[in-house]
Write a structure and sequence with these properties.
3 helices; 32 strands; 4-stranded antiparallel sheet; 5% helix
Length: 475
């Protein structure tokens, strides 16, 4: 099956798959990843389903052109530049619904001139009929997204303590949305709140309000102040305090503009692609977050090449991007001191349990130590718990444990699901950026925890291990 069919020109590296396809009934459903912020009109975000037996195209969902239900007309393409779904989808067989976490129309940081319909679906959850590909509902988590707050997390399908069928969606903003998965209507209250407007370029009109999930806790999206700047020495803390005074910052949704501004939470999270795990018996969900603000700004296109010649991409979506076809290029990066350490106070990442009966945080702990990551990215050799940035996701077991491996200090750890106490840890040869999985072997009857160990997100040390753990055999 050629996934390039109907897509038009694809510049090498501008479109590919970053998540496994979803298999639902007789269909294989795929979205796709597009490179951020390079140009207007990048490859389409079309969602397609293929017959699992024959590979034939069964349906297509082109949000900007609903008349296209399979292949585009002869000589045509799916609508270019539409929001894509690069993360992992979910599926409810009883309802026959596929749930898609959506990205943004390209580019992310300039919102004028986007394809028709894109504004309605940017940073949304979309439910499609698995048989026809027709939309049943959608819920948008950001209005007129110019912050790259697309949804990276797989939607979690959970049954609430009262039996209600819910969809729980974590976001880069640290917001947790709890929806009825049949209708998309909020179960926990969501309100529109006024957000900052100053600082945007003349061509841009930021949304006056944004949706906040006030019926659920917010994770890690604290308002920054000068007093909350940080450094490992008095000198880099002073640097960060001076920087804070110079940067533009009005709180959540400070608009991007021509002057450098703080984006808090940054565009890596909040909660990223690790999603959550769920303990049905106790009504708790477990997640991890990232707490590192970004600094971002726009550059007039005529000045972009010269103004960004000295700035290099870090291959994680940070750095300069041209946004060709718009009046502005852009620059974004982690808000760092000269020692390459975040300017905000730790923790830089936590592991969190949320009680769905009370809809409050049950416990929250810093995620790991600075042992393997310090100034300039060099191992600090400081095994003190301070909470480092986390990727991947948690794995909860029926035995009351929560496993997590996405630390920067190269450990797999097990926590007590009741209170967050660390019960066990094992040193890995390198870090991991993958979610553990667990299963019971039908052959041995033993339960295993398995994790892919390929390297921590910010570490230069990489590996190619798959490691399995189990309790000792009973004699």
């Amino acid at each position: 099956v050629a996934l390039s069919a109907g897509m038009g020109e694809i510049i090498p590296g501008f479109y590919f798959q970053t998540s496994a396809p979803l298999v639902a009934r007789d269909f294989i459903i795929v979205g796709g990843w597009v490179v951020d912020n390079q140009m207007r009109g990048e490859p389409s975000g079309v969602i397609r389903a293929f017959d699992a037996r024959t590979g034939a195209l069964a349906w297509a969902w082109d949000l900007a052109n609903p008349s296209i239900t399979r292949d585009p007309p002869a000589g045509g393409t799916y609508t270019r530049g539409t929001p894509n779904s690069w993360s992992t989808a979910s599926y409810d067989d009883q309802l026959g619904l596929v749930y898609l976490p959506m990205g943004n129309a390209t580019p992310d940081y300039f919102g004028q001139g986007r394809p028709p319909g894109s504004e309605e679906y940017n940073s949304s959850i979309v439910a499609l009929d698995v048989t026809t590909g027709r939309e049943r509902w959608h819920f948008r988590t950001v209005n007129h997204d110019i912050w790259d707050y697309d949804i990276p997390s797989q939607p979690a399908l959970i049954d609430l303590p009262d039996g209600q069928k819910a969809l729980l969606q974590t976001t880069k903003r640290g917001q947790i949305f709890l929806l009825d998965r049949a209708t998309g209507k909020p179960i926990a209250d969501v309100v529109e709140k006024p957000v900052p407007q100053n600082g945007a370029v003349p061509e841009e009109t930021p949304a006056p309000t944004q949706p906040f999930s006030v019926g659920m806790p917010t994770i890690g999206a604290d308002f920054l102040t000068e007093q909350k700047t940080w450094g490992v020495t008095m000198f880099d803390q002073l640097y960060c305090r001076i920087a804070f005074r110079k940067l533009r910052y009005d709180g959540d949704f400070t608009p991007i503009g021509l002057t450098p501004a703080i984006q808090q939470p940054g565009n890596t999270g909040g909660m990223n692609w690790g999603s959550v795990s769920f303990d049905q018996a106790n009504g708790r969900v477990f997640m991890n977050d990232i707490r590192i603000p970004s600094v971002f700004y726009l550059v007039p296109s005529a000045d972009y090449k010269e103004a960004t010649a000295h700035i290099h991409s870090d291959d994680t979506g940070h750095g300069p991007s041209p946004q060709a076809g718009t009046p502005y290029g852009m620059v974004t990066g982690v808000w760092m001191s000269p020692l390459n350490i975040p300017c905000n106070q730790p923790p830089f990442g936590t592991i969190v349990a949320v009680d769905l009966k009370t809809r409050k945080i049950a416990w929250q702990i810093p995620a790991g130590t600075a042992d393997q990551l310090g100034p300039f990215g060099v191992a600090a050799g400081m095994p003190m718990t301070m909470g480092m940035p986390t990727y991947a996701g948690t794995a909860a077991t029926a035995g009351g444990l929560v496993f997590f491996a996405g630390f920067q200090d190269f450990y797999l750890r097990a926590y007590d699901a009741e209170n967050g106490n660390e019960l066990w840890k094992y040193p890995l040869p390198v870090g991991a950026s993958a979610t553990p999985m667990t299963y019971v072997s039908p052959k041995t009857g033993r339960q295993y925890i398995v994790v892919s160990v390929g390297g921590a997100a910010y570490s230069p040390k990489v590996g190619d291990y798959v490691m399995a753990f189990a309790l000792p055999k009973k004699e």
